[in-house]
Each structure stands twice: as C-alpha cells, then as structure tokens.
Amino acid sequence: MADATETVKKTIDQATAAAKAQSEKVQAQAETAQAAGTKVFRDGVERSVAGLSELNAQGKKNLEAMVEATTAAQRGAEALGQQAMAYSKKSWEESVSAAQSIAQARSVQEAIELQTNFAKSAMETYIAEMTRMTETFTTSMKDSLQPLNARVSAQVETFQAAR
Predict the structure, then answer these.
(1) Mind listing the pLDDT tens digit for each residue in 36-53?
(2) Who has the most CB within 10 Å: 8, 38, 111, 149?
(3) Which residues are CB-neighbours of 80 under 8 A, at least 6 positions away?
(4) By 3-state DSSP, what share of the chain in percent is helix, strand and coil, each rounded to 5?
(5) What whole-number distance in Å separates Cα of residue 6 and Cα of residue 1?
C-alpha cells in the first residue's frame, strides 16, 4: 500500500507542478498581453496628442491667415475711400470752376463750348478714375485672398500627403 500512496503522492506532486507551471505560463502571457495593451494604449494617446497639437497649429495658422486677409482688405478699403474722396473733391472743384467760366461767357456759343469741353473732360476724368479704382479694388482683392489661398493650398498638400 505504500507503493500506492507513493504513486498517488507522486501524481499529486506532478499535477501540482504542472498546474503551477501552467499558472506561471498563463500569468506570464497575461503580463505580456497587459504590457502590449499598455503600449498600444500609450501609442494611441501619443498619436492623439500629436494630432491635436497639429490641429491646434493648423488652426493658429488659419487664424493668422484670416487676420492677414482682413488687414489687407481693410487697407484696400481705406485706399478706395481715399481715392473716392480725392476724386469727389477734384470733381467738385472742377465743376465750380467750369460753372464760373460758363457764367462769365460772353455769348451762348461760348457757353455751349465751355459746357461741352467741361462735360468731355469730366467724362474722361470719370472713366480714368473708375479704371484706377477698379485696379485698386482688384489689387486689394488679390492681396486679401492670397493668405487664404496659401492656407487652402497647405491644407490640400497636408491631406494629400496623409493619403
């Protein structure tokens, strides 16, 4: 009977050793899986933080472009306003001068000639001024849209590079 007891004891010891070895193996696998999960989580958080930082930087650049565009538009509006005021003043002065000349005309024929010359000159000045204002407006629009176009181009390049 001692042999049977010995055999049972050996079997129990072997089963215990096998269970302990299996338990240690499972524990090692669990620790490896936990370490891998932690690394994946940490990498995901780092990528998310990097993405948010990049998004924040892009937002800042976009805001700077908007400020630059608005400033350029404001400069253009000021230039147009100054041109309009200068033209109005000049036009008024020329109208007053023409009215004085017409009033001092010695004949109806001379008054008609003075009026015709004034109308022709006023129309030429008006067309020249409108051309100048159109050029100022066009330049202002180009200057205003340039920073925004640059940001759109940068965003398109970023998206294409990410694909």
Answers:
(1) 888 888 988 888 888 888
(2) 111
(3) 133, 136, 137, 140
(4) 95, 0, 5
(5) 8
Dig out the tokens for 114 from the structure: 């003075």
Contacts of 158 (CB under 8 A, 6+ apart): 58
Cβ(57)–Cβ(155) below 8 Å: no
Q: Of the candidates 139, 124, 140, which has an alpha carbon nearest to the alpha carbon of residue 87?
A: 124
Measured CA to CA in angstroms, residue 15 lies from 2, 6, 10 at distances of 20, 14, 8
User: What gap in Å lies between CA 153 and CA 145, rounded to an integer?
Assistant: 12
pLDDT tens per residue across span 1-40:
667 788 878 888 888 888 888 888 888 888 888 888 888 8
Residue 151 CB coordination number (10 Å): 19
* CA gyration radius, the chain: 43
C-alpha–C-alpha distance, residues 13 and 1, integer Å: 18
Q: Rounded to whole angstroms, what are the CA distances from 24 to 12, 17, 136?
A: 18, 10, 81
